[in-house]
Amino acid sequence: MARGLGLAALALIVQALAWWGPRRWAVPGLGRLASQVGELVTAEGFATAALATVTAVVMAVVAGLAAAVVIGIAFGSSRLAYRAFGLPFEILRPVPAVAFIPLAILALGQGRTMEVAVGAFGCWWPMLFNTIYGVGQVDSQARDAGRVLGCGRFALVARVVLPSMLPFLMAGLRTAAPLALIIVIGAEYLASAGHGLGGVLIQATSTGDIDVLWATAVLTGVLGILIGAVVALASRLACPWAAEQAR
Fold this sequence. Notes:
The protein is mainly alpha-helical and 247 residues long. It contains eleven helices and no strands. Helix 2 (30-42) crosses helix 10 and helix 3 packs antiparallel against helix 8 (153-191). The chain is elongated and about 70 Å long. It starts with a helix and ends with a helix.
């Protein structure tokens, strides 16, 4: 019910902007916007563009997740490691990923590798710091019990640390996945690569088709919601005990 009210309020704001908003914004009315969204979804090449963007997002999230787990466990398990190497990460953390896109283009070109690298860099921070925090919350008695039962370092991480910090990691993933979508589309657009949803935006900008720009924004939002729903489902499946505790 609450979500329906929020959606209705957003629809009213959009319609009000279409009627009385600044002309330079060129906000289409709800009917026109819905029609344009339908045309864009069924347009030739749009499904391929959306798939290219989603593929890059998945690759970026997987790369960021792998790096966050490895470095997060190392930092969370060793205060010395965090004190020695944590400062560079704290310096880089506030820098927006889009600031590195020109450098990434020069180093990696305008293809998929650049988009994935920039997306991974931009989205891994929530997962990294959630992992560090989650490792720090592991019960010391559980660690001691694992050692008493003969678990080595890697077995201790696999059987004690990972299950304990997994809910924290998944919480970071829920923030990181939609963030990766934003960054990847930005990289596609700024690189002028001509593919993905960024390519759709480039084409609409070059032709001055404002309706397509608005429709692409709407569909990007829908795609972000779908990605968030998939991650939430994966979180419930990966750590059902966390959902039970939340209840």
